[in-house]
Amino acid sequence: MALESNERPDQSIAKFESMLKTDDVYFFDAEDFEDIIHHYLNNGKITLAKKAIRIGLQQHPGSIELKLLDVEVLVFENHLDQAEQYLDELQLLDSSNEEIFIQRANIFSKKDNHEAAVEFLNKALDLTDNSFDIYSLLGMEYLFMDDYKLAKESFMRCVDFDEQDYSSLYNVIYCFEFLEDHDGAIVYLNDYLERNPYCEVAWHQLGKQYIAKNMLSEALTAFDFAIISDDTFIGAYFEKGKVLEKLGKYNEAIENYETTIQMEDPTSHAYLRIGKCYERLENDEMAKYYYYHTVHEDPLLDKGWLAITDFYYRRKNYKKALFYVNKALNIDGENPQYWKKCAMINFALERYDQADFSYKQAVDLGNYELGTWLDWAEVIKRNDDLPGAIHVLSQGQEFYPDNAELKYKTAGCYLDMNDTINARICLIDALNLDFKKLDAFKQEYPQYAATDWLRGIVAKIEKSLR
């Protein structure tokens, strides 16, 4: 039995699915099939989309639009050679169909040939007045090519076409940020807001740009306007709280974070920020209360465990700090900052072997900060391994060849080994790099501060610096 279907798309979809459950055959217009297929593709129901394409082409074998949807699915499933062959056939039938060039662009994009993809998308632009989707695709290709200037221009075209296209608006601002052009982003957003004064998304993004410029009062104003535009916009309350924190207005910041908790299910990030505010207000009990709420809400949030670690570390309760940093490491054992914190705690507990191991882990995972090399060398020195300390300091000098502190410390280690020749070489290098840090060296190695050996070297360097 064949039935015609001129109903709305949702009715067509319901009728199509009813047909699949029975032996009846319903007739649909080609446009109905297009709506049905788009519905399934947009909802990720590829199997149903393929069934609709197959049945659609049985009823409308000459429909180029249905064949192009077939190509789209082939591209999605990475059957690229088959899709290209299909497109060659379609181009012979309709060489002015922009969708053919769009699908060719998709194929080249999947092959990581983004220059060719851009070329085909530009050909598609020449064939249609409806260019919104093409500019969006162009923007993505330029992002793949790291050409943020052209990507920005393409996404701007999308926003010009549809000022409610927030996805493109976000991409425009992303490009500005990557180009480190915060001033340009501010000008662009203010211009956009002249036309759309109640767009909470734009106010929110403007506030973030002001934060990047450290224009905190302007950022607060922007977030206030975002809230006026949409008083349920949680992101604006949260960002406003962060700005208030930076301004030292911790009670007001807490109010904004609490608003986000009242409006939606509590989040561990909101609890964490509230805890930090209370700690800065020196309300330790409330700080602990919210820190523990943070990890209760999300036991896998390593930053929550680290916040508790820092809380106890600052109060010199190193045993508890060690317990909680190990919690953070159990969640993210590849985080070099956590290993460094673990090393600092073990050092404070005079567990030098464990501190040595933790510093090694931190460095192996990519922490090459100056303080890491200096502190690690000190740990090894406390373990009575002066050659090991010198080796670590030499590694640090590879990253900081012009740093005087590393040279001074190396000189001190050589002096402790009674190797005055190498100590003299390192000390002369250190004095030439930064003579003013000599006082710090004398404080760290007071046993050598008043020696004739040191006075002689210092006098020689002073003379050469005059």
From TrEMBL:
Keywords: TPR repeat. TPR repeats lie at residues 98-131, 132-165, 234-267, 302-335. SUPFAM superfamilies: TPR-like. This is Uncharacterized protein. It comes from Euzebyella marina.
